[in-house]
Amino acid sequence: MHCPACEAMQLGYEGMHRHLIETHSTLVEIIATGSRPSYCVKCPLCDDVYRQAIKRGHPDAGFVQEFELDIRLVGMDILVQHLIGEHPIEIGYPRGEGPHE
C-alpha cells in the first residue's frame, strides 16, 4: 500500500497506520472548543469528512492534551478503514491483507 498524502510505500495495514500517525498526524484535527471536544478526519483523496465527539471528553484542554495521541490513533484508524473501503485501487491495497482477514 502507499500513502495517499505523500505516496510513500508502506507494508500492509499496520505499516500504513504507523506511517500516517508518525508523518501525517495532522490529518486528524482535534477540535477542543465548544461543550465537548471532537476529532475530525478528512480524506486526502476525496475530501470526505468524518467528525466524532470524544465520548469521554470534557470541555477541558488538559483532557485533550493528555489523550491527544490516543485520539489521533482512533481518528487515523477511521481514515485507514475509509481508504481501504473507498480507495483500495488508489492506495494499492492488496486483497487479504486487512486487519480482519
How would you describe this structure to a colleague?
With 101 residues, this protein is an alpha+beta fold. Helix content is 41%, strand content 14%. The protein has four helices and three strands. It has helices at residues 12-23, 61-66, 68-86, 88-91; strands at residues 28-31, 38-42, 49-53. Strands 1-2-3 form a three-stranded antiparallel beta sheet, with helices on one face. Strand 2 (38-42) and strand 3 form a beta hairpin. Helix 1 crosses helix 3 (68-86). The two termini are 16 Å apart.
Instruction: Provide the helix percentage.
Output: 40-55%
Shape: elongated
Number of helices: 4
* Strands, count: 3
The spatial strand order of the largest sheet comes to 1-2-3
Q: What proportion of the residues form beta strands (DSSP E)?
A: 5-15%
Describe the biggest sheet?
3 strands, antiparallel
Structural key phrases:
101 residues
Reconstruct the topology from this structure.
Elements lengths: L11 H12 L4 E4 L6 E5 L6 E5 L7 H6 L1 H19 L1 H4 L10
Antiparallel strand pairs: 1-2, 2-3
Helix pairs in contact: 1-3
